[in-house]
Amino acid sequence: MGLILGKISVETPKYEVIHACPDYEIRKYSPRVVAEVTYDPSKLRGDPDGGFMILANYIGALGKPQNVRPEKIAMTAPVITKAGPEKIAMTAPVITNVAGEGKEVTMQFVLPSKYSRAEEAPAPVDERVVVRDEGEAKFGVVRFSGLTTDQAVAERVEQLRRCLERDGHKVVGDFLLARYNPPWTLPFLRTNEVMLPIE
User: Fold this and answer.
1) What is the C-alpha separation between 132 and 188, in angstroms, rounded?
2) Which of these, 12, 29, 135, 32, lies nearest to 75 by C-alpha position?
3) How far, CA to CA in Å, does 140 sit from each of 7, 98, 104, 113, 175?
4) Is the pTM here over 0.85, yes or no?
5) Each residue's pLDDT tens digit, 54-91
6) Percent helix, strand, coil in the chain (nearest 5)?
7) C-alpha neighbours within 13 Å on the C-beta side of residue 84
8) What is the CATH number of the domain that holds 94?
9) Which residues, at least 6 apart from 141, have a Cβ–Cβ distance to it below 8 Å?
10) Residue 94 sits in which domain range?
């Protein structure tokens, strides 16, 4: 029932709120280990969230874990997505919903904190899955509920960017979309965040 009603009952990444105001929060995230997959949604039946099943299989969310131990890994929240720039060869980050044709998407699961370094996590069987360390990072963050449509996300990212720049923060990268609930959660009870990396 908690999944439908939006209750978050899994581990979430550790962070410190450095500054909070009505428009946003500045958070400093601790180092963490992520499992990620980068893919072209057009090659996965046009599904911008096509990487979810690949990562879910790695951790064993839906059956036998597809990692070398095999070890079931607890699900955490949020699921983070970022879409890359126009496809040239290899790309990297920003948001699932803004990925158009010819864009690649990177989806991440933050692994449980018991894995303090990437080499402690089980190696994936699927070569598309990469397990890596992410260092400490600072983000401007806006939380919102509802659906994460292209327009809803783009509006919040633009507003967050304007507010951060107004207050003298330097944005140093593309935005991330963090979604904390499964897709069957009632939209008005969902927890979503847009995050912009800052200096």
Assistant:
1) 33
2) 12
3) 24, 19, 24, 22, 10
4) yes
5) 999 999 998 999 999 999 999 999 999 997 653 333 22
6) 20, 35, 45
7) 19
8) 3.20.80.10
9) 24, 25, 26, 27, 160, 193, 194, 195, 196
10) 2-197
